[in-house]
Structures are given as C-alpha cells and as structure tokens.
Design goal:
The chain has about 950 residues and is mainly α. The chain is built from 47 helices and five strands. Among the domains are: about 90 residues, no CATH class; about 180 residues, Leucine-rich Repeat Variant, CATH 1.25.10. The strands form two sheets. Strands 4-3-5 form a three-stranded mixed β-sheet. Strands 1-2 form a two-stranded parallel sheet.
Length: about 950
Amino acid sequence: MVDPNFEQALIGLGKKQDSKTVLKILVHIRREVEWPKNIENITKLREKGCLKHLVGILQMPQKHILDVCLSILGNCIMDKGCARETIGTYNILSPLNHLLRHFPKEDSINGRIFRILGNMCHHRDQWANIILDRKPHIVMHIVGFIKSYSKDDIPTEEKFSEASAIMAIRTLRLLLNSQTVMPLIKSYGVLKTVGSLLIKLSAGWQESKANEGVLNNIIRLLYDYSRYHCYNSILEMRNTERGDSLIHLFNVLLLSPKKIVKIIMNFIKISQLKSELPVPEICDKFIEEVMKKNYDTEEFKSECIEYIQCLCYLLEHPANRNIERCANCLPLLVKVLKSLDKATNVEIECSILLVKTLNNFKYEESLILEQLKCDVVQVVLSKLHWVVGNSETLKIGHKRVRKRKGSQAMLTDLEFYIEDSLDFEFSFYKSCNRCLLSPRSPPLSDDESALTAHRAYDRSPSPCSSVASNDARTWSPPPRLSPSPFSTPRPVSSPRPFSSPRLFASGGVADDSDSDDYSPVCSEADPGEEFALEEEEEEEEVSMVEEGEFEETEEVSAESPPYEASSTKSLKARLIVEISKLILTYSRIRPPLPELGKEDLLLALIKCSDYSSLQTSVTVINAICRILQSQVYLIPLMKTTFIENVYSMTSFQHPSCTKCVDHSCVGRLILRRITELAESAVGKGDIAHGLLRGSDEDKRKLVLTIPYIFTNKSILAKLMLNCGGLGVLMGLLKDDSSLKERTIKVLCALAAKRLEIANPKEVSIDAGSHSSTDLHPSSEESSCTVEFELDDGSRLQTNRAFLMEKSEFFRCLLDGSFRESGETVVRLRDVEMKSLRSLVELMKNEDRIQKTVRGLDTRTLLDVIALSDRFLLPRLCARLCDCVERHKMSVRTAPAIYRWSLESRLDLLRVESVAFALVARVSDKSRTAMFEGLFALGHDEELIGDIEGLLVRYLSRFRGVAV
C-alpha cells in the first residue's frame, strides 16, 4: 500500500518550489523508493509522470539536490519501464553528460551517474549503442576516471572513492555487446586502462587484501570481454602503461580462481603464442596451494576443491597439457581423489572432474603409467563402492519389477546391439546417441551450467537375443565433442552472451543491488526336515520362485521421468560413466594390467551396470568386455568365485520381472566373452595344463568354473574325462568341506545346461494312455476265490482265476505243482495289506491307473512297485514307475525314492532320482537341501558313483566329436 505522505511528495514535486523544499521532497521520496523493496512506489512514481520532474531537477546547480535526485533516478531506472521512459521520452543522457562536464571531479555525482548508466545498459544493449554513438564523451569520461584512479600519486582533489571506481568498471562492462566490443577495446582503450589498474591494485591485494571489491569487478569485466574472443583484447592487456597485465592475473588468482581460469581458457582459443598467457604460473600456484593443506581435514575439502577444479579445467585443454607439468600434477590429483571419502554431492562432482581429467591423458602412455604408479585403480574402485557398496558378492537384490504395456526392459536389446555388430562400442554409441545426452563436464563457475540432465532412454521393442558374432571388437569411437566447461557461445547477433546456473550453490558470491543480477533379496521356502515316506502326494515341482517373493512389487511405466541434474543418483551415474571410461583406457595398455583382472573391481562394475540408465550400463559393460578380451585374466578369474557369481545372474529371481531380464542379459554377455577366451587355442591349453600339471588346489578351483563357461561339448568332455576334471569334482563331492555346496551347484549346471540331461518328470510317458497286451479284462463271473493271509493275520479275498490270468507268478503258485494250488487260504510273507489291496485294485482298473495312483501315498506306491516286480508284473511295474516319475518325484521325495531303490535292491528309479536331483528346476536352497537329504541316507559311495556314471555316460557321447 502506497504511503499517503509519499503521494503528497509526488504531487509537490510537480509544483514550483524553492530549493530547500525540493530537497525535503527528494529526501522523502528517496526513502520510499528502495529497490526491490518499494517496487510499487517506483511504479507509482512513473505513472504520476514524476520522472519528467526528476530529470528536470538535474538542471539545478545545487550539488546536494543533485546527489539525492541522482540517487532516486538510480533506483528508479532499475525498473525497465522507468529506464525506457527516461531515455526515450525525457532524454536523460543529455543532462547526465552535462553534469559530467561540469562536475568532472565530484566523486558523489560521478559515482551516481555511473550507476544510472550501468542500470540503463543492463536492460537493453540498444542504450549502450546510443551512448557510444551520440554521447561518446560519457565513455571517454569513464575511461579517464579510471585512469585517474589508477595513478600512483593522486592529487587530493582527484581522489575518488572505491564505490565510484566499482560503478565505473561496472558501467564499462555493461556497455559491452557484440556491436560495441571493438570500439570499446580499440577506440576507447578500456582493457588497456583496466589492465593498468589491475597491475596497481594486485600488488596491494597480495600484501593486505585491499581493494577486493574493485578487483572482483575488474576480473568480472575481463571475463565478459574475453567471451567475445577478440585477439585485440590480449594485445591491449599486454601493452598497458604499467606492462603486461595478464601476468598479474596470477597475483589475484586466489581472489576469484574460477573466473580467472575462465578468462585464460577463453583467451587460449585466440592466443597465438603460449607465452602470452600465464598458464604455467597459474598451474603451479594451484598445486602449491593444494599441497599446503592437510588432506584429512574438512578445511581442505571446503577451501581447495575449487582449486582442484580449476586445475582440472586448465588441464582439460590440450594446449595446457605439457608433459612435465602433467607429470607433476598427476600424483596430486590421485591423492586428492583418494582423500574424498564422503559421498556428498560436492565431493562426487569433484571426483567426476578428477576422473575425467585423468582420462584426458589417455593418448600419452607415460602419463597413464604415472597414474598407475599411484595405485589409481584401487582409488577409483573405492569411488565405485560409493554407489554399490563394499560387498564381495554379486547378490543384486531387488523387488520384482513388473512390466507395463509399452515398456521394455532396459537391456533387452543389449545382446542384439553387441552381437549384431562387428564394432561393439560403435554400435552402442550410435544407438544411444539418438536418445541420450552424453554427460558433460561440470562448469567452472556460476556462468556455466552445473550439470547435464540425463534423459530417460526410450527403449525400442527388440528381442534380447540374437546370433552371436565371434569377431566382435571393443574399440571405442572418438568421444563426442561436448562444449568445454569454460566455453561460451560466440556472440553473433545476440545482444549479450548467455549466463547459466552455478556449479556449486555455495560457491557463488552474492552481488549487491546494483549488480547485473537484478531480476530475479528373495526369501526361500524351507524344505521338510525329514524325507518321510508317509507323506501324501507331494508338489510336482518346487518352483525357482519361493513364497514371499511376490509381496513387494514395483511397476515400470512406459515413460521414465528424466533425472534431476542435481540429484545424487544422477551424479553417481555420471561418476560410474567416467570411471568406466578411465578403466577402458587402462585396458588398452600392453601388457595388460593385473589390477584390472581383480575380482572385486569386476564385481563392482557389474553392479554398477544395474544402477541407472542404458547409457550407464552400456559404458560399464563396454569396459568389462574390453578387459575380458585379454587372455591373461582367464586363469586368475577361474580361480575365484567371479564366474560362478556371473553365472548366478543368468537365473531369474522373479517371473515376468524386467530387472531379472536385465541381469540375465548382462550375465550371459559376460559369460560369452569368457567362453571365447576359454575355448580359444590358448585358453584350452592353459586350462588343460592346469588340470594335468597344476597343484591340487588349482585343480579344484578350475573344475568349479569349467562347466559354467564351456559351451563346446567336445572340449568339455575332453577336459572332464581325458584331463581328469570330473574325477576332481567327484573328489570334492566326497570331501565334507566348504566346497561341497559349490560342487553340487557346478555339477547341476554341467548336467542341466551343458549335457542337457532330461528331467525325468518331463520325458516320462503318459501311463494312462497305454494298455498292456498281457493284461486282460478281469473275470468277475468266476466263483473260484482265493484268500491271502498276511504276516499280521489279516486276510484279503480275491478272484483266483483273475490272478492266474494276470500274473505268471500266481498261475504257477495257484495252479501248479506247489502246495498252495490246492489251498483256499495262501500265506504271503513280507506283504502289507494296504499295498496288496492297492496292487489288486490297480490290476482290476488298468484303464484308470493314473487316477488310482494319485490317491496313493508315495510309500505305498513304492511298495506296490516292489510287489509288481515280485509277482512278475513287468508292464504294470513299468507304468507305476512312470507314474512315480511324473507325479511323485519332488524335492522332498527324491531322497526317499533313492533310498527305497537301494534298500529294495531293485535299482528301480535309482538313476531317475539322481537325474532329477541334478536337473530339476528348483532354487539353489531347495537343491542344496535335496542333496543334503541324499547324502544323509548314508550311501555316499553309491550316490557319487551314480552321479559320476550318469555324467560319464553323457560326456562320452561327445568325446570323439571334432572340436
């Protein structure tokens, strides 16, 4: 709400008053037009037409009235409407020029006029053009003012305040645009004059930190002029009255390091000689300042991260990468990178910049080797642990991610892109660049963009598998040319170069009101503790997905939201990309570096492939595949759990889960690269030598990974049989050691994935669809019966002729030369009533055998099978065995069936039980429990012999096949 007294003052301003009254009115108005607090009052003043009266007051001779009036105009012209009206309607430039001529040495008047001029030029470049065209005296006066201020011996009457000097420098900066840049530099000598003032004040700042405000504005002016890439700027600054002012930028480097480095980087693009710019001195200064600090203190991180950033930006330009200078910087950069131990946004950004700087030396082998001497691989590994943790396993737990209509798993196209192209990296590069923005270096100061947002990848609906290419290479294409963090669009017809957000919110310096910123893991189901034969019908198959896995589910929408540039996740994703690129550079070193083949590094990279967007995954997998092209890493990796962990990724944790699809694609791709190494001539020879001549410990480690990586069955058979790999596995199975569980897992992979042994449940015939030729319809009309008496005294009466007709055993027993042929009550030893009754029922209902079997418990059914074998019913026995395989074989019953087969000495279902244990599609925990139950039976030798015999039988099929 407008103050009534303020409105009265505005009314009084339009009336003819004496000088004393005018002064009172102006003082009252001045108190009510503070910017931006009193914007409404300024608008009211303009609407009342008071600007005309204020411009008119500038004709008065009284200095104190002029001071207050200029102060009011300075605030009002910060409003664009007021500026347009005072210049276009009331021609304020003429009275201002007149005042400068009549009061050339009045500090207060000069300072206020400079402020008004700067505020006008801030709104429109057109006003700057008008000033230079119509009132050049104003510009000459400002330049002369700065010359006077830069004199060593200034007369008393010519001494000006620091505030007036700041306003003069600011005005010269705001007068700058694409049309005035050359006149200001060449005709008016702005840079030569300002450079001379820089030389004078820089020495005093080094001693007592004096004149910081003036120096900050000088640096800002030089930065704005440097953005126009005019070579005359360098010439003018090198030829001031006091000498080369560019050298003296080094003296005030710590006052505004980012701005000064940006000035140097802009001048580098137009400089003709390296000696024109003080790059060596600036680099040495940054190194000196960083080395002074204690790396373990917060003081270092808060004060010197800026210096490290500036040093990295200087080294980013090839012209600054002197071999000697870079060699001196590298140990320091690695040391600083190691000292950053907190995953804050600031430290992550600094780490990104440091890693990218290290990678800038990828074409100079001596500098790469210098980095490796500093143990840089372990340092970047610690940064990966920021993202994925410090786990030594590859358990990537996740909720089930359900696919929505129109969405696509992130890596379902992964194998297609890689295998369908001879150039692995280039194929990805082309596909990703169509839909992703490459991460760019963080800018240096508040005039550059802080971060580049990652756009979500628009996934294409292509299959995840394709024909493999054996000639896939992993040479990277040239990196995308992205703008330098110091670069600014070259001014053309635009009125002023753009300004952008700051790199660090805390790194900027707030300007006063007269600056140019006026406007504003899945659970498992526990198996039974005992493999009891008394259980009713078991579940047919234990699913790989146990209970409890469907409780938490996430959905993936077709369009993912873009990442926020300032988010920690986006920063970590960029850090992963830069580290992957650096590791890719190290992977090209010959001979290969042992550090790159370490299990912990590769596991961390694999985990990172699941972290963010497709671009991140592609870059990380690219680095992994490049490492795995080297043969020297094969045997060391086979002696670790790395290959086993990667193989585990290929198994699905959840049905219809896009995350599981992504993990499976990554796992298969990495295993394929390892397979190419292992099945090569060198790989086969090294592994065979290790199995034949290696130590027992090495043999055990090798055989635990061979089935995971060999897809060629002939090579696999020779390694397992000819080289003794299978014998080593059986030895591990006999030993009750910590490797027993891993041995079981690898044997199952060998049987199911490599030898493709069929699951008995899947290959059994349909028992209900066959009729037996030796079984005939029962004769219910026969009146001759026989009664069987069992050991417990119970009796079962049945048709005598029916039994004789069905079984040769009963025909000989009941109608032959035996004593029982004349008896009506026949004693049967070692037979249970339930089993005998079930047998007779099955014999009578042969066409409904499946339905009858499903009503029997496992123990009774096995007893019936034994009776059918004892009573010479081979076809019924075979059909019942088939029913057991199809309907009764499960995780809980397999050990019981195997024990029955051994104890009954029939050997029926013995091999089938072992085969089911090896190839059944169940979870690892259920399979382990099943084998524990098998070994708990106490028939270890028979069990191991059966496993070995089954594997040998299948391996022998491929032993003679040509490789």
